[in-house]
């Protein structure tokens, strides 16, 4: 939570973006575009917005409440988010306790919402205060995202029944791509020698990916709500890296990598790079879509763990 930008910082950033828009005369379709009459679907974070956009095609206007790069677990919705949400026809959340802020947020609104992880078999968190609770990062297995796509197609069919067949067809097409990216994931990570298959990250966000790829997962903290690593957590990771001769460690784009750099200094392991989980990058960045996110993470992990 302490790494989350303060409300003041966010207000300041919002002001900057408004100014930037004014300066560039940006004509991108936004919520304020009166010419766009499509029903608005809001998602809680950018990864879901991209997946939903694939299922919706051009029939719905899909937008994310949190922006690229945002910390999504402990997000504090702004008055502008609430105003935007009151105009929405549907809100999609991940569920599995991902969005700590969401229950209160939707309780204040008269807008239907759908939980896209419904039907996914959760992996439980093994450590910390969250022990035994479902790990929320189910989208880190593309196979689970097939279920997300089906759930979205169903929710969209209720919202716009005239386009139900198109949503189903879009979901099927996207599921093919999910299967392909899953094969790439298991294929590339499966080639790593057994003794190099240890994935050390900041947040425990890779349980599903590690399960699919046969990696041993080790992290500094279980869920980002407590993203300041304790000395015990850092010491534990250092011991693990030394004992297993782990060649590289990683950290995610939405949190500070400072605690992991301490592990790097203490062990001589390389910093293997930034992994994306809780957010896509901006459009021009390395992971503008969910499929890019999986490809990028797989490539980064393989490069880091290959000696
Ligand atoms: Zn997370």
TrEMBL record:
The keyword Signal applies. SUPFAM superfamilies: Helical backbone' metal receptor (SSF53807). The lineage of its organism: Bacteria, Bacillati, Actinomycetota, Actinomycetes, Pseudonocardiales. GO terms for molecular function: metal ion binding. Residues 164-191 form a coiled coil. One of its GO terms (biological process) is metal ion transport. This is Manganese transport system substrate-binding protein. Keywords: Coiled coil, Metal-binding, Signal, Transport. Pfam families: ZnuA (PF01297). Its main location: other. It is found in: Cell envelope. PROSITE patterns: PROKAR_LIPOPROTEIN. Belongs to the bacterial solute-binding protein 9 family. Residues 1-31 form the signal peptide. InterPro entries: AdhesinB, Bact_metal-bind_prot9, Lipoprotein_PsaA-like, ZnuA-like. GO terms for cellular component: cell envelope. It comes from the Bacteria. It comes from Crossiella cryophila.
């Amino acid at each position: 939570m302490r790494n989350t930008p303060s409300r003041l910082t966010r207000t300041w950033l919002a002001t900057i973006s408004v100014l930037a828009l004014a300066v560039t005369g940006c004509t991108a379709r936004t919520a304020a575009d009166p010419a766009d009459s499509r029903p608005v679907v809001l998602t809680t974070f950018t990864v879901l917005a991209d997946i939903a956009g694939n299922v919706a095609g051009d029939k719905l206007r899909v937008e994310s409440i949190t922006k690229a790069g945002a910390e999504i677990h402990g997000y504090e919705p702004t008055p502008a988010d609430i105003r935007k949400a009151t105009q929405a026809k549907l809100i999609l959340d991940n569920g599995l306790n991902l969005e700590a802020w969401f229950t209160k947020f939707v309780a204040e609104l008269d807008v239907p919402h759908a939980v896209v992880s419904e039907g996914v078999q959760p992996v439980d968190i093994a450590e910390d205060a969250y022990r035994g609770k479902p790990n929320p990062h189910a989208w880190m297995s593309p196979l689970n995202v097939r279920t997300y796509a089906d759930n979205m197609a169903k929710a969209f069919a209720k919202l716009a029944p005239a386009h139900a067949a198109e949503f189903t067809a879009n979901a099927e097409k996207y599921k093919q791509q999910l299967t392909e990216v899953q094969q790439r994931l298991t294929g590339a990570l499966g080639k790593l020698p057994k003794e190099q298959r240890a994935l050390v990250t900041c947040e425990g966000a890779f349980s599903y990916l590690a399960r699919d790829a046969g990696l041993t997962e080790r992290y500094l903290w279980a869920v980002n709500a407590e993203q300041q690593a304790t000395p015990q957590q850092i010491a534990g990771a250092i011991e693990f890296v030394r004992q297993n001769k782990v060649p590289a460690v990683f950290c995610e784009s939405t949190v500070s990598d400072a605690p992991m750099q301490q592990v790097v200094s203490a062990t001589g392991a390389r910093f293997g790079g930034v992994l994306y989980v809780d957010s896509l990058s901006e459009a021009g960045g390395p992971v503008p879509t969910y499929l890019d996110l999986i490809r990028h993470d797989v490539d980064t992990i393989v490069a880091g763990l290959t000696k």
